[in-house]
Design a protein that fits this description.
nine-stranded mixed sheet, about 25% strand, two-stranded antiparallel ribbon, about 230 residues, 11 strands, Spore Coat Polysaccharide Biosynthesis Protein SpsA, Chain A, alpha/beta
Length: about 230
């Protein structure tokens, strides 16, 4: 990974200060979205040029605390266009769900049609690997959303259009069930991060357990971090 672009809005100055303290050596580009109170598809719209900069892209939600093996799994995946799925999903409307039938993603949304037939489902982690061509297709899609006035949408809807459309067969996923991570949306998520996730993140790799997949689903595998990507998130 050589370049990082971060879409900022609320408290952008605090984020810039924190980035300034980083010693990672990465080139970090802050892209301001003045309309951050609208749907986050607008943030991705402001990042569209970065999606089209060339090369593969890691698109990441910025509110996720995760073990490094989660990212290793994504980067090392054989799928050029890849989602991450955790089958240990909490019930309710909040998790963004990935539904799988015959090894293919057939739904990607918080609310799933009860009539939809699928083999199993899990929660999307909010990290995605995209090929250069797919990143360009996503940039075109979010531009279309904004042009049509769909500024209140989640960016996942634009990704869903690609997954359920003609590009669908080009997408795959990796199962990271059992690896520690948490999306931090509410105060109770901060508590869970301190109580459950951070202690497991600080443990050795050997102590991190993974959960076998259902019958016919490959169990999660550990991979080494590799590759150069441009991150927009």
């Amino acid at each position: 990974m050589s370049e990082v672009s971060i879409g900022v809005g609320y408290r952008a100055e605090a984020i810039a200060a924190e980035v300034g303290r980083s010693t990672s050596g990465l080139e970090v580009d802050l892209v301001h979205n003045p309309d951050y109170q609208q749907g986050n598809v607008v943030t991705l719209w402001h990042l569209a040029e970065r999606l089209e900069a060339g090369g593969s892209v890691l698109l990441m939600d910025a509110d996720v605390l995760y073990h490094r093996m989660v990212m290793e799994r994504l980067v090392a995946s054989d799928h050029a266009n890849c989602f991450l799925m955790d089958r240990d999903i909490e019930p309710g409307e909040e998790p963004v769900k990935l539904c799988v039938r015959d090894g293919r993603i057939v739904e990607f949304r918080k609310l799933v049609d009860p009539a939809l037939a699928y083999d199993y489902h899990g929660e999307s982690v909010g990290f995605f690997k995209l090929s250069e061509a797919m990143a360009r297709a996503l940039a075109e899609t979010v531009r279309d959303y904004v042009a049509r006035g769909r500024r209140e949408e989640f960016y996942e809807e634009a990704l869903r259009d690609l997954v359920l459309g003609e590009h669908g067969p080009r997408f795959g996923f990796e199962d990271i069930t059992g690896l520690p991570w948490v999306e931090i949306d509410f105060p109770e998520d901060v508590d869970r991060a301190h109580r459950e996730v951070l202690p497991r993140m600080l443990s050795t790799i050997a102590e991190v357990s993974v959960t076998p997949g259902p019958e016919g689903v490959p169990s999660p595998r550990a991979h080494s971090l590799a590759g150069r990507d441009t991150t927009a998130g």
